[in-house]
Design goal:
Blueprint: E1 9-19, E2 30-41, E3 46-50, H1 57-64, E4 72-77, E5 80-81, H2 87-94, E6 97-100, H3 114-124, H4 133-143, H5 160-172, E7 178-182, H6 190-207, E8 210-214, H7 218-224, E9 227-232, E10 235-241, H8 242-247, H9 252-259, H10 293-297, E11 303-306, E12 309-311
Parallel strand pairs: 3-8, 3-9, 6-7, 7-8
Antiparallel strand pairs: 1-2, 1-4, 4-5, 9-10, 10-12, 11-12
Helix pairs in contact: 3-4, 5-6
The chain binds adenosine-5'-diphosphate and magnesium ion.
Length: about 325
Amino acid sequence: MSAQGKPLLQLEHLSVAFAARGPDAGASRRFRAVDDVSLGIAPGEVLGLVGESGSGKTTLAKALLRLYKPAAGRIVFRGADLAPMGERALAPFRRDLQMVFQDPLSSFNPRHTVFEALAIPLRLHRICPRGEVSQRVDAILARVGLPAAFRDRFPHELSGGQLQRVAIGRALTLSPSLLVADEAVSKLDVSIRAQILNLLKDVRDSLGVSIIFITHDLHVARYLCDRVGVMYFGKLVELGTVDQIFDAPRHPYTRALLGTLEDELRGAGGPETFAPPGATGCRYASRCPHATALCVGAHPPMEAASDGHDVACHRWREIDFVRPTA
Ligand SMILES: Nc1ncnc2c1ncn2[C@@H]1O[C@H](COP(=O)(O)OP(=O)(O)O)[C@@H](O)[C@H]1O
Ligand SMILES: [Mg+2]
């Protein structure tokens, strides 16, 4: 947490378990797609979550929005722990936590116009008097950079970038304090991507909303985020400001990611297998050039490498952390 005071949301030792997949997965075998992750997000902060495909980014996001029930840990938000809550108890918190997905088309009802997509949540949650819904829809469209004429269009009549603008607008209808954007620009062309990133920046600056920005693209994370958390195999392995992560990476995995910056990690493939339940040791040990018997034998705890810069590596002090030349 930066020196901005009280976090808006704090994850404490959060774990999410799924039934193991695959031919030899017994019915009772479970694995932790998110394993003992602790982190906080400040009001108005953009926190990036990076890591290759399958590292648990989406699962972490869905768990903190309570779309999944965590296996362990706490989700502290507005003084309450959301982790154990049932739907009734969660209801008052739901509108405060919103999500924007990678593929906006699938998240819209194809028979609803843009107006309806935005008006329905406004009416449902009685955000404003009925007579003001229309005005409010126009204001949201303006906020996300679309002309009012777009209110009569259907989702299939919009480009990817326009749809993502509407998706962001819809997420903002309920004035959330936290927006989770999961690979929200990954499918967009580079020029459109920059526009949507700028819109997210603008939304944060003008509304003070916190954003958890999930991406496998480190360029994008560097451009948009204040702080970045690096995930590997369900573990948070490093957390720091953008400058700390990109200019002074401490974890060998972060350094490997930065070394392959131009590959964007797309198609790099995730970890082949998950460590069996109860396995000890660093999950990166089998790929790490610096691993020792200690790394295989004991899981490295998160340690403060510098102010606000945390790393989970037994050897971070010993290794020569020169920034890899990309
Ligand atoms: N609903 C689910 N049921 C079972 N396994 C899942 C489910 N969702 C994700 N997983 C598994 O959890 C791991 C993390 O997935 P995910 O959170 O989607 O990673 P990321 O978003 O970083 O690509 C992967 O091994 C994935 O196959
Ligand atoms: Mg994902």
